[in-house]
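Progress note, sequence design subtask.
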């Protein structure tokens, strides 16, 4: 067992015993947010932060019920001929009080409060429906969906996926699941069997942000992985930092040796495109070619590229 401790001091933090207890409680929750097993003093900004978090949690619950979410798409481009070879689905939450809410802010909260499963199911269905529409338009591009570790760990995750694919009669070869390295590090045997079952449905498996987490060559050997994605953090500085360039070279070499597909994400300049192409990474995702855009804008983008 461990202990998280919140401290509020009389009379600095309050002259009322009730408010003193409340402030100490808020400080305790901040200690938990910072990783537990620690202590934290109350400060005025803690109350503002907790209230903002509470408002966002309430808004998320409403957003799930009323579908305030929108799926954007970012194209993946083959630098050799500038053709679209795929897309990634990216979730957006409609603004709260006119202020855009970053996925980096609401996704971790959704995972923490248990809403991410419903959100993930919404995204999966919406993407599959959009893929079917694109097929009718003559566009057969694989679309990747980010799968939360919480969603992936659900007992009946596979059954839900299988049921959706059957219901929509979708070509599963046009769907790809992106998971993080952290997923691979938990319950290794269950994860391997689950990934194999998903792959047998025809769905590709991609490792997102490779090299930033629990990287291990053992994962590439033991798990059925189709695609490696080079993280933006390495792409950003690969032209100026020898260490980042060496990591990019290593990931490219690994992917080639293991006959995996390779994608570089977060590419924003022609210099980065040229450097990656020279090294043998040709599929590019980033603002240089395409920003994340809504479904109808992506329809126009695909038609313009066709």
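Output:
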């Amino acid at each position: 067992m461990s202990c998280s401790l919140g401290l509020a001091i009389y009379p600095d933090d309050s002259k009322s015993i009730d408010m003193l207890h409340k402030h100490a409680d808020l400080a305790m929750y901040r200690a938990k947010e910072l990783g537990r097993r620690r202590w934290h003093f109350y400060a005025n900004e803690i109350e503002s932060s907790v209230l903002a978090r509470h408002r966002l949690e309430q808004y998320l619950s409403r957003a799930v019920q009323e579908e305030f979410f929108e799926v954007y798409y970012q194209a993946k481009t083959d630098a050799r001929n500038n053709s679209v070879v795929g897309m990634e689905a990216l979730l957006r939450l409609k603004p709260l009080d006119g202020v855009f809410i970053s996925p980096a802010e609401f996704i971790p909260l959704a995972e923490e409060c248990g809403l991410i499963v419903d959100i993930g199911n919404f995204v999966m269905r919406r993407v599959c429906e959009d893929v079917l529409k694109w097929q009718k338009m003559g566009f057969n591009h694989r679309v990747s969906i980010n799968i939360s570790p919480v969603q992936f760990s659900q007992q009946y995750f596979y059954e839900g996926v299988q049921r959706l694919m059957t219901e929509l009669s979708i070509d599963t070869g046009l769907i790809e699941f992106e998971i993080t390295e952290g997923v691979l590090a938990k319950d290794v045997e269950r994860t391997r069997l689950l990934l194999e079952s998903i792959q047998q449905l025809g769905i590709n498996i991609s490792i997102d942000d490779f090299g930033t987490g629990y990287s291990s060559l053992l994962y590439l050997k033991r798990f059925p992985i189709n695609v490696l994605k080079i993280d933006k953090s390495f792409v950003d500085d690969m032209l100026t930092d020898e260490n980042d360039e060496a990591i990019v070279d290593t990931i490219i070499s690994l992917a080639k040796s293991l006959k995996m597909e390779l994608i570089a994400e977060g590419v924003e300049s022609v210099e980065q495109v040229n450097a990656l192409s020279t090294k043998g990474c040709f599929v590019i995702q980033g603002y240089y070619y395409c920003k994340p855009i809504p479904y109808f804008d992506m329809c126009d983008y695909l038609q313009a590229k066709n």
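The radius of gyration is 22 Å. Work on this subtask will continue into the next period as scheduled.
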